[in-house]
Amino acid sequence: MASSYRLNYSSLLHLLLFLSSLLTSSANLSFNFYAGSCSVAEFLVRNTVRSATSSDPTIPGKLLRLLFHDCFVQGCDASVLIQGNGTERSDPGNASLGGFSVIDTAKNAIEILCPATVSCADIVALAARDAVEAAGGPVVEIPTGRRDGKESMAANVRPNIIDTDFTLDQMIDAFSSKGLSIQDLVVLSGAHTIGASHCNAFNGRFQRDSKGNFELIDASLDNSYAETLMNKCSSSESSSLTVSNDPETSSIFDNQYYRNLETHKGLFQTDSALMEDNRTRTMVEELASDEESFYQRWSESFVKLSMVGVKVGEDGEIRRSCSSIN
């Protein structure tokens, strides 16, 4: 689905000034970084994402989540892609990640035309960017030039990723440690407007009664929505079942997520927390009422996310295969 959103002149100027300030702190990243060395790189990633999405509409949500889990652990260096015992990818906190085959397909296509040139870290960031566009969201320009990390340790995962039962203060601390603000937290939580989650990611909002049936224990959740979730997740096979993050427009990147929060239909405790706290409620209400504002703020916050802890120059490498270091 092509996006109908484009920045107007004023918004574009604001975004360019914002991006310019970010690039001063990461001088080795630039727009069109591969213009001379691999001009087709971004086209190949975008085409791969679109093709994968056309056959599997869950792909955008998976690619977006993959970027979050990569950037929050050791920075945006594709360390989450490395396979093997004791790697980030092997940690239970990353067991439900997907989209790896899309990254590999894009990397393989690029390697044929531009061997040892484009980093897996850039491909992950570009694929997440293109996933949003493929789901009908804004077109975002991001700088490239990231290098791939040379290590990946499972021990780094749990202290850095956000659990779905975190309090707002815990989330604020986690985002702050990555150089992201409370506004970035609210805006980037909008990623939950697409994608799906396993029942065990939110079943802490319920408990089993004496007959083994679920009952609601989280008063911040709408009763009818809670009933739907409990019915979906009550079977013995619930560990393998998934529920759409957004019960209204699950495959469209829009601001419905925030409207869901206003009606107490946030899937996770971390979602509901944004509406329950005065520090974030006003932002939720603003984004719920103005999709263009959400898209503009998303563009800014997404770029910031994609630049967390990037490795440049001699700090990293260009992997030949995204699943293993050279």
Automatic annotation (TrEMBL):
InterPro entries: Haem_peroxidase, Haem_peroxidase_sf, Peroxidase_pln, Peroxidases_heam-ligand_BS, Secretory_peroxidase. The keyword Transferase does not apply. Residues 1-27 form the signal peptide. The record marks 65 as: Transition state stabilizer. GO terms for molecular function: heme binding; lactoperoxidase activity; metal ion binding. Its cofactor is heme b; Ca(2+). Its main location: secreted. Ca(2+) 1 binds at residues 70, 73, 75, 77, 79, 88. This is Peroxidase. Disulfide bonds join 38-114, 71-76, 120-322, 199-233. Ca(2+) 2 binds at residues 193, 246, 249, 254. PANTHER family: PEROXIDASE 6, PTHR31517. Removal of H(2)O(2), oxidation of toxic reductants, biosynthesis and degradation of lignin, suberization, auxin catabolism, response to environmental stresses such as wounding, pathogen attack and oxidative stress. These functions might be dependent on each isozyme/isoform in each plant tissue. Residues 28-326 form the Plant heme peroxidase family profile domain. GO terms for biological process: hydrogen peroxide catabolic process; response to oxidative stress. GO terms for cellular component: extracellular region; vacuole. Its EC number is 1.11.1.7. It catalyses: 2 a phenolic donor + H2O2 = 2 a phenolic radical donor + 2 H2O. The active site is at residue 69. It is found in: Secreted; Vacuole. Heme b binds at residue 192. Belongs to the peroxidase family. Classical plant (class III) peroxidase subfamily. Belongs to the peroxidase family. Ascorbate peroxidase subfamily. The keyword Oxidoreductase applies. Binds 1 heme b (iron(II)-protoporphyrin IX) group per subunit. Binds 2 calcium ions per subunit.
